[in-house]
């Protein structure tokens, strides 16, 4: 297939314009691809679940009578609830 010589500059201009337009959308207006958006949404959802359920789980753990016997200890109070850490061996 032969492309007339008059059309080639228009095709190159369209290709360059598409690249510039993509750069403007991505960096100027904050546009992201669907994959990047999904990664960001997943990370935010995980943080929200931990923030919402963490205190409830810690409260239920503290309510157990054998919590200290299992080797867990409170290291830092956080908003009135203990934060758990693994025991140190040795």
Q: How many β-strand runs?
A: 2
Assess the beta-strand content as a share of residues: 5-15%
Instruction: Tell me the distance between the termini.
Output: 77 Å
- Main beta-sheet strand count, sense and barrel state: 2 strands, antiparallel
Give the low-confidence spans. Answer: none
Instruction: State Rg.
Output: 28 Å
Count of helical stretches: 2
Strand order of the largest sheet: 1-2
Structure description:
The chain has helices at 8-28, 34-63; strands spanning 73-78, 81-85. It is an alpha+beta fold. The chain has 2 domains: 1-31; 45-90, no CATH class. A two-stranded antiparallel ribbon has the order 1-2. The radius of gyration is 28 Å and the shape is rod-shaped. The N and C termini lie far apart (77 Å). The model has no long low-confidence stretch (mean pLDDT 79).
Describe the structure using short key phrases:
alpha+beta; 90 residues; two-stranded antiparallel sheet; single chain; 2 strands
Outline the secondary-structure elements.
Layout: H1 8-28, H2 34-63, E1 73-78, E2 81-85
Antiparallel strand pairs: 1-2
Short description:
With 90 residues, the chain is α+β, with helices and mostly antiparallel strands. The protein is built from two helices and two strands.
